[in-house]
Amino acid sequence: MSHDHDHDDHDHDDDPIARRNALRAEALESLLVERGIVQSDVIDGIVARFEQDIGPLNGAKLVARAWVDPAFRARFLADPWAAAEELGLATGPGHTPIVVLESSSSVHHVVVCTLCSCYPSALLGLPPTWYKSPPYRSRVVREPRVVLREMGLDLPPEVEVRVWDSSAEVRYMVLPARPAGTDGWSEERLASVVTRDTLIGVARPEATGD
Amino acid sequence: MTDARPERVLEWDGPLAPPRKNGELVFDALWESRVFGMTMTLYERGAFAWDEFRERLIAAIADWERAHAPDDPSYRYWQCWLGAFEALLADKGICAPAAVAARVTELAARPAGHDHRPPGH
Known about the structure:
The complex is a heterodimer of chains A (210) and B (121).
Chain A: H1 16-34, H2 40-53, H3 57-68, H4 70-78, H5 80-86, E1 98-102, E2 107-112, H6 121-124, H7 134-142, H8 144-150, E3 160-165, E4 171-175, H9 187-192, H10 196-200
Parallel strand pairs in A: 1-4, 2-3
Helix pairs in contact in A: 3-4, 4-5, 7-8
Chain B: H1 6-9, E1 20-21, E2 24-25, H2 30-44, H3 50-67, H4 77-91, H5 97-108
Antiparallel strand pairs in B: 1-2
């Protein structure tokens, strides 16, 4: 698989139906905003929330299985693609090799692609916008703790932070530590706390009550 | 009190489920995410009950299916959603179809190159 391309947000000017739909949507938004019924920034926020919260299912399933099954965890660390295939998540030949980084209470891994935006989409879904942004790509290498803190993850000084730079030859995903308070949870419930950000390493999973 | 969190009402399987890739919502164009966001914002604010939208989405998808062959590649989930949302706004008296049509005409009349959103959207 080559580099994962950005999603193209252009309206399809060459497609009259798509253009008509885009105009209808824009008309609705402008009317609702004028009447004070919705605000554009609120819409932005809600879309972002869905894009973030509705997570990368494949990566989350792998992590949840690794949390409950030590033998699977070993296989997942040794050969992530074979493990994905074992769960029926795979995806055919020709994948860029992927290395799974096991975070713990003493070591925290975080992934970046300093050159572009290499990202294991087959397991992690679409990369978030910030992952591709120049500030994240340059700063997380220089001052990972500061960047992580800005993103809401304040790591204690005793935790060692390791930053991994993806490339066209190798991709990374984080196997986060299983959060406390999740004893007896089903795999499905465990997978629900594995967000995209935890697989990149800019967040840690938390046992959210549901 | 019903739980008005939009995350609870979306269906993830079956014909009403929005398109996803590896679990994530997939928007092929900006307008799709705007319509989705408007719907969810209004729902979260209690402007309608989810079933009121859901039944209109079912109807919109059924209308499309009646008018097209089952494997017609031009199927657009978000277009059905847009139609359902417009119908809901009309029926709830939030936004009349005539006002939408007038605004569409107005927007369509802009010179070429001016029908894109301002930066930041």
